[in-house]
Amino acid sequence: MSLENWSEDIVIAHLSDEPSLSEDLVQLVSRFDAEDERDVVLDLGDVHYLNSTNISQLLKLRKRCGTSGRRMKLCKVNDSVWGVILVTGLDKHFDFAEDVSLALASLQMGI
Fold first, then answer.
1. What is the bridge-based pairing of β-strands 2-5 and 10-16?
2. pLDDT of the residue at 96
3. Which of 18, 51, 73, 79 is the most buried (most CB within 10 A)?
């Protein structure tokens, strides 16, 4: 995972497939358990599969962000990952953007 500090209010996490995806999501949850108060953009462009552990970690991260007023956007979701998101009903629980630029713009505009 590479983290990009886009601004003092937003961090971008560029994620990739397993075996690193599970570890990266655990790190993000820990980071947002601490004192990081920025919104987060998750770039899923290099993720081609989600397992139940990944889904659990995404939900934990969403909860951590939501309880402290931070926002999270998922972007660049490919078709296979989108299928898992639709089947599990997670499309109703996450905010999505087509790409990183649109995710950043929507966070800055408060959308």
1. antiparallel
2. 96
3. 73
The overall pTM is greater than 0.85: yes
Q: Which domain range does residue 60 map to?
A: 2-109
Give the span between the Cα atoms of 22 and 26, in whole angstroms: 6
For 52-89, what is each residue's pLDDT tens digit?
999 999 999 998 888 778 899 999 999 999 999 999 99
* Angle, CA of 39, 45 and 49, to the nearest 5°: 105
Tokens representing 80?
């296979």
CA distances from 67 to 53, 57, 62 (A): 21, 15, 9
- Structural domains in the chain (count): 1
Q: What amino acid is encoded at 51 in this protein?
A: N
